[in-house]
Design brief:
Elements: H1 3-39, H2 44-53, H3 61-75, H4 82-96, H5 101-111, H6 117-139
């Protein structure tokens, strides 16, 4: 793989990563607020445990895993392999396509949140921007022959 191609892929992932973090924070805070409305205030460590173990937060786990894997790829000095790149492309697509199992889970989880108008607008903005970045990911040398 050429250095330029690897740089283009890293640039595309670098554009996507902060959007995923902002989306995740919005969704996590809203889910925490809803959870605490039912069960009372939770300390930060308890919320961390809930994100890992509780079914109430389970719909957020695919997004959390994608963010962790994306960060690992960006932090690695090694070039992105075709397999890693393709996997990230597919996972981004599946996560934000409501027709897929994981995308449907994210959509259903998001729909049940008690978001105010400003949060709904923010959510819509993040999702539009993520879809644009997904298109950019797909546009960066999808052909395995380019490797």
């Amino acid at each position: 793989m050429t250095h330029d191609l690897n740089g283009a892929r890293r640039a595309a992932l670098s554009e996507l990563a902060p959007l995923l973090v902002k989306l995740h924070l919005l969704l996590l805070n809203a889910q925490r607020k809803d959870y605490e409305a039912m069960y009372g205030p939770q300390p930060a460590l308890a919320v961390l445990r809930l994100t890992i173990d509780s079914p109430a937060f389970g719909w957020l786990r695919p997004l959390s895993r994608l963010m962790a894997d994306l960060d690992a790829q960006l932090d690695s000095p090694a070039e992105l392999s075709y397999g890693n790149w393709s996997s990230l492309q597919i996972r981004v697509h599946e996560l934000f396509d409501p027709q897929t199992q994981v995308g449907g889970l994210l959509r259903a989880g998001t729909a049940q949140l008690q978001l105010d108008a400003a949060q709904r607008a923010e959510l819509g903005d993040y999702l539009r921007r993520i879809k644009a970045e997904e298109a950019a990911l797909l546009a960066v040398a999808p052909d395995p022959e380019a490797w």
